[in-house]
Please model this.
Amino acid sequence: MIGRFAPFLISAILFASGCKDPVAFEEALTDQQLGGKTIPAASLSNGRQMYVRQCYACHGLEGDGRGPSSPGLRTAPRDLRLAKYKFVRMVGGDLPSDKMLYDLIRGGLHGTAMLPWDIQDDAMYDIIHYIKMFSPEDEGWRDPENEVGTPLVFSEDPWTDKAEEGIKRGKHVYHAVANCQSCHPAFATKEYIHSAFVAENKKPEFRDDGYYAARQVTEYSVNGVEQTNLPPDYTWNPMRTVKSGPEAKKNLYRVIGAGVNGTAMARWKGTLEDDDLWAVAYYVESLLDMKDTPAAAELRASLGSQGEFIPPSVESEEAGDGSADEVVE
Ligand code: HEC
Ligand code: HEC
Model:
């Protein structure tokens, strides 16, 4: 590995130590077959220059995510050799399209060191081509079997004229149909959650600290140490690919639909009915809109001050299975 990158290493160290001129790489690059396309050497060379300037500090010379600025970054920079990405998840193929990578790098990942990069189109695509070179022989972008997928298909939003109804349905889907609060916080009373489960003919369940997120393991590691992550509380934590604004619903539909690759956050498209996926996007947006407003604290306070919830007895519930009492307390 080091062998292939050694001359590059020397020039990059010169560069990092204050040489502001374009780095003179000694190792000429050749055309490469990456993701089923032939990428010309000129694009790769330019991408390499740009990468050293903009990305190397975190993602490292070999793309291993261990650049000089990486130690201590709480969400660690991605190991680009893996060709495995959290947020550019496609359908029917392992590899993302260049356009998906472009949008990701331009948008950045909020709440992490991965800032939005405003880089000219040509240069950006050169960088995108270059980072594919980090794949080891026959893996990732260099595996001829790996295909570029297609982006998630958006169905028509059925709630445009009835947002309130969408939010209401989304709250139900969130807490009962999908049980999103098995990882994320719950945002409804225990009474609401209990009866929503019963209405779905499901056994009610509620984590002990169900108003807080439950830390999860991921498939990513740094120096052999498995990385964990916290499912966001939308009223409080930044989301990586979603911000309040006109794009919020669409971006929520996309990220909830596609899931977050290599983490506990599953792909919900296909598991939920499409109208319900939209509804949950509406609901999560309504929570996101509370962020940094008194409404978020009020919601938290009211959930925190609930009296003890005693589930109704089984006889009074048509759909109970007799075990409800043990679960919600
Ligand atoms: C200051 C540190 C830093 C710099 C500089 C940086 N990144 Fe990142 N990058 C990160 C972090 C941290 C993550 C992981 C975020 C996460 O997992 O939520 C990341 C993630 C990524 C991902 C993976 C996205 C995904 O969906 O998994 C790609 C691709 C990426 N960066 C490309 C780049 C490129 C290209 C550049 C240069 C233009 C760059 N980064 C510069 C810190 C950085
Ligand atoms: C098994 C655990 C689990 C379940 C169930 C779950 N999530 Fe997540 N979710 C996570 C984790 C972990 C993350 C953080 C991923 C990351 O940033 O690395 C996450 C992230 C998210 C994000 C933020 C995406 C971004 O751009 O940062 C949204 C929105 C979200 N989940 C919504 C939902 C909804 C809605 C449901 C139910 C339909 C759900 N989640 C169910 C674990 C879960």
In short: The chain has two domains: 2-142, 163-327. The radius of gyration is 23 Å. Confidence is low (pLDDT under 50) at residues 1-22, 322-329.
